[in-house]
Amino acid sequence: xxxxxxxxxxxxxxxxxxxxxxAVRELxxxxxxxRASLSIPLVAERAGVNSSTIYRRWGDLQRLLAAVASNxxxxxxxxxxxxxxxxxxxxxxPYVEDFSSPLGRQVLRDxxxxxxxxxxxxxxxxxxxxxxxxxxxxxxxxxxEARDIIDVVVAPVIYRILFNNESAEELDVRGRIAAVLSAxxx
Length: 186
Fold this sequence. Notes:
Blueprint: H1 11-30, H2 40-47, H3 51-58, H4 61-72, H5 84-99, H6 102-112, H7 115-138, H8 146-164, H9 168-171, H10 173-183
């Protein structure tokens, strides 16, 4: 069973997904630090749906949490701010601010716990890096390689969020972006 967490446009299915995702986010806020008390029946009750609906659609709590995490984590599109540095900041700074919080860190862990969701999510992230590079090239800028952006900015930040519990300030995303951009100019 493939679980994508992506609803068909409109209709009851979309309303159910929105209600379930909202219930999960509310319960995660309420139960930060006590995730053992989070359950599918509790989510179903809060969302006003039957537990079997959640089991049928998402399979288990871990997959549901991963689907919610991947649904909220990246903007749908890269913002064209007019500069490579601006595009990178507009894309990655809000992500880091969201995921470096205790709740965000747990949501990121939930997402990574599901290999399919992780693969899809990091494919989306790579697509955003490629889009940032494409916009820069169209403006006549010379962006670093996608691999360099991921290796210098994205990967170390995600690692430090997950394993060092660092705050957005400690992660210095602006400094990392400046470093990868200046390395590309030499």
